[in-house]
Amino acid sequence: MISSILMLTADGVPSAEDVSREVAFLSDTLSLLRDSGQITNDAFLEAGMIQGGLNVLSSMISNDIGESEVDQQMHSLVSKAEGLQSKHPNLDSMIESHR
Description:
The chain is mainly alpha-helical. The chain has one domain (2-96). The chain is 78% helix and 0% strand. The chain contains five helices and no strands. Helix 2 runs antiparallel to helix 3 (41-62). The longest helix has 22 residues, at 41-62. It is globular.
């Protein structure tokens, strides 16, 4: 998940379309990983919170919310993704292997 967040935010504020595409990719990939037993339901649910945060980010960008608020949301997502990475260290590489 951290790779997704960092990729989206590398050049500043991403487009709502880019964020939405990433959300769809994460949704599909996380479901595959859970259904195949590669990740636990807990990891799936925790990653889903970040995915939900990305949905919020996409909506904020679509609705022309101020850049400072968008930046706050992006920083919050980075922090959450770092926490998820600490708790589930293999999750990011498992997600990225499906890219």
